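Section 5.1 Outputs to date
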Amino acid sequence: MFPGLGKMNPKQMQGMLKQFGIKSEEIESKKVIIELKNGKDIEIEEPNVTVMLVQGQKIYSVMGGTEKEKKEEVPEEDIEMVMQQTGSSRERAVSALKKSDGDIAGAIFLLKKK
């Protein structure tokens, strides 16, 4: 957010932000999970989380920690739908759904194309 200030200790940073009228508070956290629209999750273990109040808006800053990307499993009803529409095996239906990023129509198209 502020270039070149990454080496500043948290107390100095809070003091500087306070001079600008920005209230900040560190939040003790074990894990932060960010759910993406594409069905994937990003998990950040042991992050440093700070919440800042700027002009009435809360800004959450997540830094550090260990990042893991998790992909949501394919929903059972989607697998069933693709199997029914294409006559494919479960394995082929799951594979097609993964290739099409969970898009049922795309998975059906892939399997009917073959």
